[in-house]
Task: structure prediction
Amino acid sequence: MTASDYRKAFTQLNSKPVKKAKFLKFNQPKKRSCGYALRKCRTCGNVGAHINKYGLHLCRHCFREMALQLGFKKYS
Result:
């Protein structure tokens, strides 16, 4: 079970609150306080090639698409 689909079991567990609480205790993903997966791209959610400078929070792919709108100029 991945972190994105742990909520799929809620349909069966909604009628059993004690089992739902135990399920959430052990299967809910932890809140991240450090690591590369903490910083994600604002637009696409990619964790790789992240540009954090100037508070952009964009991956390099989205940055290339939005650079002119943000006021960056391409030299050469």
User: Anything to note?
Assistant: The chain has a mean pLDDT of 84. Residues 49 and 61 are 8 Å apart (CA to CA). The chain has two domains: 1-30, 34-76.
